[in-house]
């Protein structure tokens, strides 16, 4: 059913260098969800708090060599899970390949994600308007994958006060955010009560991120002989 609907929505440019790819992850969706369950056994979903002390309503975990974390000390990327002290679970090759393929499809060559933040939304959970700017590599795109029940996604501009457009993100949809869109304000409206055969009432969102720039090789210099 969903498959039929997403095949009717066409790839769409939703902002400067931002591409919505409807159903791009549908084939691997079931495998992605199974991998999320395995990741959550090692690094359980948890409710993070903003530096100001407010609880976020989506629950989060990560895989990859870095993971996003927030607490009284600030927003940051950590190489270990602060809950366990252990490295974040390895990013499954399926995740990495999907993110690379989607970025390539949207015109970003050579994307190699270091972190995958996994958001889990129960009914009523939301994400307020924010910018993603805890990454150093702002030239790299972010790839997002939506799974489970749909969400109303809000997409603004460079300023919090800019008007927002809204889009429905469905199971299997992928969005690639690069260029100017990379720093645009965005958020998720409260998730409506709904059911999906693979996730029940839940929605998952994967965001693939590059945090640090690749190390540039030292330029070779010719010394006089
Ligand atoms: C636009 N997640 O994790 S995905 C986030 O559905 C986040 O869980 C939302 O915003 C979610 O930070 C939205 C779409 C998304 C992700 C990252 C972006 C849009 C973006 C970064 C820059 C611009
Ligand atoms: Fe975000």
Automatic annotation (TrEMBL):
Fe cation binds at residues 130, 132, 186. This is Alpha-ketoglutarate-dependent dioxygenase AlkB. GO terms for molecular function: broad specificity oxidative DNA demethylase activity; ferrous iron binding; oxidative RNA demethylase activity. One of its GO terms (biological process) is oxidative RNA demethylation. Its cofactor is Fe(2+). 2-oxoglutarate binds at residues 119-121, 203-209. Gene3D superfamilies: Alpha-ketoglutarate-dependent dioxygenase AlkB-like. Keywords: Dioxygenase, Iron, Metal-binding, Oxidoreductase. Substrate binds at residues 68, 75-77, 134, 160. GO terms for cellular component: cytoplasm. InterPro entries: Alkb (IPR004574), AlkB-like (IPR027450), AlkB-like_sf (IPR037151), Oxoglu/Fe-dep_dioxygenase_dom (IPR005123). Pfam families: 2OG-FeII_Oxy_2 (PF13532). It comes from Kozakia baliensis. Binds 1 Fe(2+) ion per subunit. Signal peptide: none annotated. The lineage of its organism: Bacteria, Pseudomonadati, Pseudomonadota, Alphaproteobacteria, Acetobacterales. The keyword Iron applies.
